[in-house]
Amino acid sequence: MSGQWGEGPARGESAPGAATAEGTGDGVPQPRGGGRAEARRAAQGGASSPVAAGGGRAAARNSRKPGKNVKKIVAWSAAGVLVLIAGAGGAIYLKLNGNIKSFDADAIAADRPPEAQADADGNKPVNVLLIGSDSRGKNNSDLGGGEDGGARSDTTILLHVYADHKHAVGISIPRNAMVVMPPCKLPNGKWTKGSPSAMFNEAFSTGGSDDGNPACTQNTVEKLTGIRVDHTIVVDFQGFSAMTKAVDGVEVCLPKPIYEGDVNPHLGRKGNVVLPQGKQKVAGQQALDYVRLRHGIGDGSDIGRMKRQQAFLGSLATKIKGEGLSPTTLLPLADAATKSLLVDPGLRSADKLLSFGLSLKNIDMHDLKFVTVPWRYRTQDKNIDLVQADAAKLWETLKADRTIDGQNATGEQPAAPGTSAALETAPPSPSAAADEGNTAVKVAVYNGTTTAGAAGKAGEMLKAAKFTVTKMGTAAGTKYATTMIEYGSGQKAGAEKVAALFPGATVEAGTSPGVTVILGKDFAAANGGAAGSGTPGTSAGPPAAPQPLPSSVTGDSRSADDDICANTTYGSGG
Questions:
Q1: What is the 8-class DSSP label of residue 172?
Q2: How would you class 252 by CB atoms within 10 Å of its CB: exposed for 0-12, middle for 13-18, buried for 19 or more?
Q3: What pLDDT digit, counting tens, does each position of 514-541 carry?
């Protein structure tokens, strides 16, 4: 149960290289008199507090034992990033530039997935890793960050912004999912050996730094997904609290009232209502209570909490966009957020943040989706295993820039029938009568080059000639100079028909049923791609269509404009 309830080694208590806490950043309210900090001091023999002595809500939450409380945070930055600095002017540029700090580029793994290539129109997807940190440094302990040193990441979202920049999807990764953790750099400069099986949230706490280890989390996500992370953004308790106040609160909804004893399970009694049932607006500490809440609702798991966090992000994004992307609206939000941001080196400037923020302004709230990576409870404990086959389909869907409901969001406009570049360079199709006979020929197409989208382009050619395309994907090797066409038993005639579309291709018997096309550099060069690799700015055609997503993904997704009272819990109990 250690990973499920936030205790044990995944919390990083014994991680080496712990750093000392930094001083308090400006712009964040000090703890109010009689609040959490004073209640804790009173319990330790310090100044007395009437609120602490009287057993009020804040004091009740602080009656928990130091270091044993579960500290949660949401990757709220997803929605904040969507509009963080869009439309800002020179004054905010200078202000934000002074706020931003980044982590060490040398800590990012050298062995990484390939970078996505832009098409002829410059369309390119962007993958952003959003991490919520419950760092114990600075003033975070007064907001619920705990007494211990170091930082934990209890919620992580991979935000995929599609190439058309009109769609985006946030993928929640359970903090106690068992994953392969690659080697990671420690604060002392040494690298760990990695682990074949570790809880996902161990990556962020590796090294024990108050800033966490976002590079290790990024390396782990790239290892898990095979997707290159373009940017990483970390926000802590202070940033979240200040952001929710800057937007004058966020509307949320709960299916039942939440009590002090739910927020603090160590309290030993039910206590007073902290968050009432139904719709309400929360900011600051109340917003933190909402996004960290696990007990007293549903089955008490992180799965339900992730659902509420996704609903919160959608509500935040909807509110910010609804109020307009003016500097007046965004200045307080951006200033609050960037004071608590830790980003990758590629985002450590206001102009890059501005450029990224502006590129997202056309995303409609209905097209901002949230899903959780397919998962299941383990039988040996209450941690989580990812359903690898279903998760692989999700990662392939993102790589192909298909939305979770199957739309092509590459940004490319489909050519009019008979005018695509692929068809223009192909030999004349057989007669219509002959085409009809092609439907019986089943063809699998694999890209044997490094030119992105070649399999999709060839697949469209084959479909246009009435062949039945059963699969499009990447070949085991990507150094084929000449296109190869292999055929199974009784399929030679079909293979020769297919070869008519690929001049110069080699045709030979194979072991797979049907007909298999492995594309070579000759096809890539003849159809608008570079002969050696996918070059930025080169039109590579549409990516291969991935397999349909399982219902565990599509049936449990939510849009940012969904009813905030729907799908906010998991399991029995609320």
A1: E
A2: buried
A3: 899 999 998 988 876 544 443 333 334 4
Contact 423, 217 (CB under 8 A): no
- In this prediction, residues 330-339 reach a mean pLDDT of 71
Residue type, position 311, single letter:
A
SS3 333: helix
Q: Give the residue with greater pLDDT, 202 vs 24.
A: 202
What are the two backbone dihedrals, phi and then psi, of residue 485, each rounded to the nearest 5 degrees?
Answer: -125, 115
Q: What is the pLDDT of residue 439?
A: 85
Three-state secondary structure readout of 227-265: CCCCEEEEECHHHHHHHHHHCCCEEEEECCCEEHHHHCC
Sequence-separated (6 or more) residues with CB below 8 Å from residue 59? 39, 49, 51, 52, 53
Number of neighbours of residue 408 by Cβ within 10 angstroms: 18
Residue 365 burial class via C-beta count within 10 angstroms: exposed 0-12, middle 13-18, buried 19 and up: middle
From its phi and psi, is residue 484 left (phi > 0), alpha (psi between -120 and 50) or beta? beta
Residue of 8, 4, 6, 12 lying closest to 217 (CA atoms):
12
Number of H helices, E strands in the chain: 20, 21
pLDDT at 255 over 70: yes
> Cα–chain-centroid distance for residue 343?
15
Who's near 475: CB < 8 A, 6+ residues apart?
446, 447, 448, 518, 519
**Mean per-residue pLDDT for 11-28?**
36
Q: What backbone torsions phi and psi does residue 568 show, to the nearest 5 degrees?
A: -115, 15
Spell out where 307-403 has E strands.
341-343, 368-372, 375-377, 384-386
- State residue 92's pLDDT score: 54
Dihedral sign for Cα atoms in the order 466, 471, 473, 474: negative
CA-to-CA distance for 143 and 60, rounded, in angstroms? 14
Strand 368-372 relative to strand 558-559, pairing: antiparallel
- Contacts of residue 232, defined as CB under 8 A and 6 or more positions apart, other chains included, come to 103, 128, 129, 131, 214, 215, 217, 218, 343, 344
Q: Which of 16, 213, 195 is nearest to 106 (CA)?
A: 213
Task: Find the largest Cα–Cα distance for the chain.
Answer: 92
The structure tokens listed for 142 are 């007064």
The token pair that represents 525 in the structure block:
């060069």
Distance (Å, whole) CA 312 – CA 304: 13
Q: What is the pLDDT of residue 7?
A: 33
Q: How far is CA 29 from CA 66, 328, 564, in A?
A: 22, 21, 29
β-strand partners of 273? 259
